[in-house]
Amino acid sequence: MIVCHCMAISDRDITAAVTWMRAADPATIITPGKVYRALGKRADCGGCLPLFLDTMRGCASFAVATGSIADAPQPIPMLRRTKEGQHEGRPESHRISERGLAL
To answer: pTM for the whole thing?
Structure first.
């Protein structure tokens, strides 16, 4: 069945792309954009997206395999902590209005 008329993508194409992506990386999150890229196409009008998503969700290999808690990715720690009075790692005096005019 044709799912996307603009790009001539069938339900078999979507299923094959989802299966291929899941085999390549079992933990990847599969999005419509990734499926389009895997097929070498891009979304045009977007009218097919509800049916496209239903087709993706209907694939047997769509869901991310759940493993143990140890396999789950760790949360990203706060990489940068700022002190009060600092912005983006610089002191507030980087602003021209606070430094005065240099003549």
So the answer is: 0.61
User: Are 48 and 3 in contact, with CB atoms under 8 Å apart?
Assistant: yes
14-39 pLDDT, tens digit per residue, is: 999 999 988 888 888 889 999 999 99
- The answer to whether residues 64 and 27 touch, using CB atoms and an 8 Å cutoff, is yes
- Domain residues for the domain of 22 are 2-58
Give the relative orientation of helices 11-24 and 49-58 as an angle to the nearest 10 degrees: 50
Please indicate, yes or no, if residue 86 is contained in any of the structural domains.
no
Triad 47, 35, 56: Cα angle to 5°: 70
What is the count of structural domains for the chain?
1
CA–CA separation, 92 vs 26, rounded Å?
46
Q: 3 in helix, strand or coil?
A: strand
Residue type, 1: M
Q: What amino acid occupies position 29?
A: I
99 lies in some domain: no
- With beta carbons less than 8 A apart as the criterion, state whether 56 and 50 touch: no
